[in-house]
Amino acid sequence: MQTIFVMVKCELGRAYDVADAAVQSIPEISEVHSISGQYDLLMKIYLDAAADIGRFVNSKVQLLDGVKDTFTLIAFKAFT
Asked: What CATH number corresponds to the domain at position 48?
């Protein structure tokens, strides 16, 4: 299992629409948070170990209606 975080910049006024669409249509998305700053949303995503991260972000997240830009972070280890 691999964990990635994707920061999403949305078209103006579309952040809630994008967040709703993401959690309803992409089962790999665990959480979506609204955030301040350069990006509007932060998505926590769990992928299978063999999954192609670039292809997933490109074909699923970036194609959501209202998404303008993304920035992907790959997590190495979770500390509890």
From this structure: 3.30.70.920
Question: 47 lies in which domain range?
Answer: 2-75
Assess if residue 20 is contained within a domain: yes
- % of the chain surpassing 90 pLDDT: 99
Nearest in space to 43 (alpha carbons), one of 34, 54, 51, 52: 34
Please list, in sequence order, all residues whose beta carbon lies within 8 angstroms of the beta carbon of residue 8, skipping any fewer than 6 positions away. 18, 39, 40, 41, 42, 43, 61, 67, 69, 70
Task: Give the pLDDT confidence of 57-68 residue by residue, as tens digits.
Answer: 999 999 999 999
